[in-house]
Amino acid sequence: MTRLRLLVICFLEIIFSCLLITGHTRSSPPLLEKHVALFIFSDSLFDAGNNNYINTTTNFQANFLPYGETFFKYPTGRFSDGRIIPDFIVFRVTIDSNIFAIHKPRITHGVNFASSGADALTETHQGLVIDLQTQLSNFKIVEEQLKKKPGDAAAKTLASNAFYLIDGGGNDYFVALTTNSSVLQSLYSKKQYVDMVIGNLTTIIK
Ligand SMILES: *[C@@H]1O[C@H](CO)[C@@H](O)[C@H](O)[C@H]1NC(C)=O
Ligand SMILES: *[C@@H]1O[C@H](CO)[C@@H](O)[C@H](O)[C@H]1NC(C)=O
Ligand SMILES: *[C@@H]1O[C@H](CO)[C@@H](O)[C@H](O)[C@H]1NC(C)=O
Protein backbone atom coordinates (compact mmCIF):
# COMPACT_ATOMS: atom_id res chain seq x y z
CA MET A 1 0.00 0.00 0.00
CA THR A 2 2.63 2.50 1.05
CA ARG A 3 4.93 1.19 -1.67
CA LEU A 4 2.18 1.69 -4.17
CA ARG A 5 1.85 5.15 -2.79
CA LEU A 6 5.48 5.89 -3.50
CA LEU A 7 5.04 4.70 -7.05
CA VAL A 8 2.14 7.08 -7.29
CA ILE A 9 4.43 9.80 -5.93
CA CYS A 10 6.78 9.12 -8.80
CA PHE A 11 4.05 9.59 -11.34
CA LEU A 12 2.66 12.67 -9.67
CA GLU A 13 6.08 14.15 -9.62
CA ILE A 14 6.38 13.84 -13.32
CA ILE A 15 3.37 16.10 -13.50
CA PHE A 16 4.50 18.53 -10.87
CA SER A 17 8.18 18.44 -11.24
CA CYS A 18 10.11 21.37 -12.33
CA LEU A 19 12.91 20.08 -14.41
CA LEU A 20 15.76 22.38 -15.03
CA ILE A 21 18.86 21.77 -16.92
CA THR A 22 21.14 24.70 -16.55
CA GLY A 23 24.75 25.22 -17.21
CA HIS A 24 26.95 26.62 -19.81
CA THR A 25 25.06 27.47 -22.98
CA ARG A 26 27.01 26.66 -26.06
CA SER A 27 26.05 26.80 -29.71
CA SER A 28 26.88 23.31 -30.95
CA PRO A 29 26.04 20.02 -29.20
CA PRO A 30 29.06 19.92 -26.94
CA LEU A 31 28.21 17.05 -24.69
CA LEU A 32 29.93 14.29 -26.51
CA GLU A 33 33.08 16.26 -26.99
CA LYS A 34 33.85 17.26 -23.52
CA HIS A 35 33.83 15.95 -20.02
CA VAL A 36 31.17 17.66 -17.95
CA ALA A 37 30.23 17.01 -14.37
CA LEU A 38 26.61 16.33 -13.51
CA PHE A 39 25.13 17.44 -10.19
CA ILE A 40 21.65 16.27 -9.31
CA PHE A 41 19.22 17.57 -6.68
CA SER A 42 15.95 15.76 -6.52
CA ASP A 43 13.62 13.16 -5.04
CA SER A 44 12.69 9.61 -6.05
CA LEU A 45 12.60 10.60 -9.69
CA PHE A 46 16.38 10.85 -9.73
CA ASP A 47 17.54 9.09 -6.55
CA ALA A 48 19.93 6.32 -7.56
CA GLY A 49 20.22 4.83 -4.09
CA ASN A 50 21.16 7.51 -1.57
CA ASN A 51 18.33 6.52 0.72
CA ASN A 52 19.96 3.11 1.11
CA TYR A 53 22.47 4.90 3.33
CA ILE A 54 20.28 7.03 5.53
CA ASN A 55 18.30 6.18 8.61
CA THR A 56 14.80 5.99 7.20
CA THR A 57 11.93 3.59 6.75
CA THR A 58 11.39 1.07 3.95
CA ASN A 59 8.73 3.39 2.52
CA PHE A 60 11.56 5.62 1.36
CA GLN A 61 13.86 2.88 0.18
CA ALA A 62 13.79 0.76 -2.95
CA ASN A 63 16.47 -1.72 -2.03
CA PHE A 64 14.43 -4.84 -2.69
CA LEU A 65 12.98 -6.62 -5.71
CA PRO A 66 11.15 -6.02 -7.98
CA TYR A 67 12.99 -2.68 -8.03
CA GLY A 68 15.90 -3.00 -10.42
CA GLU A 69 14.64 -6.23 -11.93
CA THR A 70 14.48 -5.23 -15.58
CA PHE A 71 17.78 -3.51 -16.18
CA PHE A 72 20.23 -3.89 -13.31
CA LYS A 73 18.98 -7.34 -12.23
CA TYR A 74 19.31 -6.32 -8.60
CA PRO A 75 17.71 -3.59 -6.48
CA THR A 76 19.86 -0.47 -6.62
CA GLY A 77 17.72 1.89 -4.60
CA ARG A 78 16.12 3.44 -7.67
CA PHE A 79 12.33 3.65 -7.48
CA SER A 80 12.10 1.97 -10.84
CA ASP A 81 12.62 -1.51 -12.18
CA GLY A 82 14.74 -0.02 -14.93
CA ARG A 83 16.81 3.08 -15.32
CA ILE A 84 15.89 6.58 -14.23
CA ILE A 85 16.26 9.81 -16.20
CA PRO A 86 19.79 10.65 -14.95
CA ASP A 87 21.02 7.27 -16.19
CA PHE A 88 20.04 8.24 -19.71
CA ILE A 89 21.61 11.67 -19.38
CA VAL A 90 24.82 10.18 -18.09
CA PHE A 91 24.81 7.80 -21.02
CA ARG A 92 24.18 10.65 -23.44
CA VAL A 93 26.99 12.80 -22.15
CA THR A 94 29.24 9.75 -21.90
CA ILE A 95 30.77 10.85 -18.63
CA ASP A 96 30.52 7.45 -17.05
CA SER A 97 27.89 4.77 -17.14
CA ASN A 98 27.79 4.82 -13.38
CA ILE A 99 25.51 7.25 -11.60
CA PHE A 100 27.12 8.45 -8.47
CA ALA A 101 25.49 8.29 -5.14
CA ILE A 102 26.81 10.43 -2.31
CA HIS A 103 28.54 7.51 -0.72
CA LYS A 104 30.63 6.42 -3.65
CA PRO A 105 31.55 9.66 -5.27
CA ARG A 106 33.95 10.19 -8.12
CA ILE A 107 33.26 13.79 -7.50
CA THR A 108 35.00 15.27 -10.50
CA HIS A 109 32.33 13.50 -12.56
CA GLY A 110 29.54 14.96 -10.47
CA VAL A 111 27.41 13.77 -7.62
CA ASN A 112 23.81 12.71 -7.39
CA PHE A 113 22.40 14.17 -4.17
CA ALA A 114 18.79 13.11 -4.75
CA SER A 115 16.77 11.53 -1.97
CA SER A 116 13.48 9.72 -2.46
CA GLY A 117 10.59 11.37 -0.67
CA ALA A 118 12.43 14.68 -0.37
CA ASP A 119 11.58 18.06 -1.75
CA ALA A 120 11.73 21.79 -1.35
CA LEU A 121 10.13 22.09 2.07
CA THR A 122 12.11 20.88 5.05
CA GLU A 123 8.85 19.70 6.61
CA THR A 124 8.19 17.23 3.80
CA HIS A 125 8.94 13.77 5.26
CA GLN A 126 11.21 15.53 7.73
CA GLY A 127 13.75 13.27 9.39
CA LEU A 128 13.23 10.51 6.83
CA VAL A 129 14.79 12.05 3.74
CA ILE A 130 17.49 14.49 2.65
CA ASP A 131 15.61 17.67 1.76
CA LEU A 132 16.75 19.90 -1.07
CA GLN A 133 18.26 22.45 1.28
CA THR A 134 20.46 19.75 2.80
CA GLN A 135 21.30 18.44 -0.66
CA LEU A 136 22.55 21.91 -1.44
CA SER A 137 24.67 21.92 1.73
CA ASN A 138 26.09 18.57 0.64
CA PHE A 139 26.96 20.12 -2.71
CA LYS A 140 28.85 22.86 -0.89
CA ILE A 141 30.82 20.22 1.00
CA VAL A 142 31.70 18.58 -2.31
CA GLU A 143 32.74 21.97 -3.71
CA GLU A 144 35.14 22.38 -0.79
CA GLN A 145 36.59 18.93 -1.46
CA LEU A 146 37.06 19.84 -5.11
CA LYS A 147 38.88 23.02 -4.14
CA LYS A 148 41.41 20.88 -2.26
CA LYS A 149 41.70 18.43 -5.13
CA PRO A 150 41.97 19.13 -8.08
CA GLY A 151 42.35 22.70 -6.75
CA ASP A 152 40.67 26.09 -6.72
CA ALA A 153 40.82 26.98 -10.39
CA ALA A 154 39.90 23.51 -11.64
CA ALA A 155 37.00 23.35 -9.18
CA LYS A 156 35.67 26.65 -10.44
CA THR A 157 35.85 25.59 -14.08
CA LEU A 158 34.27 22.27 -13.28
CA ALA A 159 31.38 23.91 -11.41
CA SER A 160 30.70 26.52 -14.06
CA ASN A 161 30.74 23.99 -16.91
CA ALA A 162 28.73 21.41 -15.00
CA PHE A 163 25.21 20.29 -15.70
CA TYR A 164 22.76 20.84 -12.87
CA LEU A 165 19.65 18.74 -12.85
CA ILE A 166 17.04 19.88 -10.36
CA ASP A 167 13.59 18.53 -9.70
CA GLY A 168 11.30 19.22 -6.81
CA GLY A 169 7.88 20.06 -5.50
CA GLY A 170 6.04 16.82 -6.13
CA ASN A 171 6.34 15.45 -2.63
CA ASP A 172 5.56 18.83 -1.09
CA TYR A 173 2.20 18.80 -2.81
CA PHE A 174 1.69 15.10 -2.33
CA VAL A 175 2.14 15.35 1.42
CA ALA A 176 -0.18 18.33 1.71
CA LEU A 177 -2.88 16.69 -0.37
CA THR A 178 -2.80 13.10 0.79
CA THR A 179 -2.00 12.93 4.46
CA ASN A 180 -4.42 14.14 7.05
CA SER A 181 -2.40 17.25 7.19
CA SER A 182 -3.56 20.53 8.59
CA VAL A 183 -1.33 22.33 6.14
CA LEU A 184 -4.02 23.21 3.64
CA GLN A 185 -6.87 23.13 6.13
CA SER A 186 -5.79 25.72 8.60
CA LEU A 187 -2.16 26.71 8.25
CA TYR A 188 -1.95 28.01 4.70
CA SER A 189 -4.19 28.77 1.78
CA LYS A 190 -3.42 26.82 -1.37
CA LYS A 191 -1.81 29.90 -2.86
CA GLN A 192 0.36 30.51 0.19
CA TYR A 193 1.49 26.90 0.13
CA VAL A 194 2.36 26.98 -3.57
CA ASP A 195 4.20 30.29 -3.05
CA MET A 196 6.20 28.67 -0.27
CA VAL A 197 7.19 25.67 -2.41
CA ILE A 198 8.12 27.89 -5.34
CA GLY A 199 9.90 30.33 -3.01
CA ASN A 200 12.07 27.58 -1.56
CA LEU A 201 12.81 26.11 -4.96
CA THR A 202 13.78 29.55 -6.21
CA THR A 203 16.09 30.10 -3.25
CA ILE A 204 17.75 26.75 -3.83
CA ILE A 205 18.22 27.36 -7.54
CA LYS A 206 19.73 30.77 -6.88
C1 LIG B 1 17.34 5.63 13.34
O1 LIG B 1 16.02 6.03 13.58
C2 LIG B 1 15.38 5.34 14.62
C3 LIG B 1 13.93 5.78 14.65
O2 LIG B 1 13.77 7.16 14.55
C4 LIG B 1 16.11 5.62 15.92
O3 LIG B 1 15.51 4.91 16.95
C5 LIG B 1 17.56 5.17 15.76
O4 LIG B 1 18.29 5.51 16.90
C6 LIG B 1 18.21 5.84 14.55
N1 LIG B 1 19.53 5.27 14.31
C7 LIG B 1 20.58 6.02 14.05
C8 LIG B 1 21.86 5.28 13.78
O5 LIG B 1 20.53 7.23 13.99
C1 LIG C 1 -8.02 13.44 10.21
O1 LIG C 1 -8.02 14.37 11.29
C2 LIG C 1 -9.29 14.58 11.85
C3 LIG C 1 -9.15 15.71 12.86
O2 LIG C 1 -8.03 15.50 13.72
C4 LIG C 1 -9.79 13.26 12.46
O3 LIG C 1 -11.07 13.46 13.02
C5 LIG C 1 -9.85 12.21 11.36
O4 LIG C 1 -10.21 10.96 11.91
C6 LIG C 1 -8.50 12.07 10.65
N1 LIG C 1 -8.63 11.19 9.51
C7 LIG C 1 -7.74 10.26 9.24
C8 LIG C 1 -7.99 9.46 8.00
O5 LIG C 1 -6.78 10.04 9.94
C1 LIG D 1 10.45 28.05 2.64
O1 LIG D 1 9.71 27.15 3.38
C2 LIG D 1 9.54 27.51 4.74
C3 LIG D 1 8.83 26.36 5.40
O2 LIG D 1 9.61 25.21 5.28
C4 LIG D 1 8.80 28.82 4.84
O3 LIG D 1 8.66 29.21 6.18
C5 LIG D 1 9.56 29.88 4.07
O4 LIG D 1 8.85 31.09 4.06
C6 LIG D 1 9.81 29.42 2.65
N1 LIG D 1 10.68 30.37 1.97
C7 LIG D 1 10.32 31.04 0.89
C8 LIG D 1 11.35 31.95 0.29
O5 LIG D 1 9.21 30.94 0.37
TrEMBL record:
Record carries keyword Transit peptide = no
Query: Which region is the signal sequence?
Result: 1-27
Please name the GO terms that the record assigns under molecular function. Answer: lipase activity
Keyword hit for Cytoplasm: no
Q: Which Pfam families match?
A: Lipase_GDSL
Q: Which Gene3D superfamilies match?
A: SGNH hydrolase
At the top level, the lineage of the source is Eukaryota
> What are the entry keywords?
Signal
Q: Which InterPro entries match?
A: GDSL, GLIP1-5/GLL25, SGNH_hydro_sf
The family note in this entry says: Belongs to the 'GDSL' lipolytic enzyme family.
Protein name from the UniProt record: Uncharacterized protein
Organism (species):
Citrus clementina
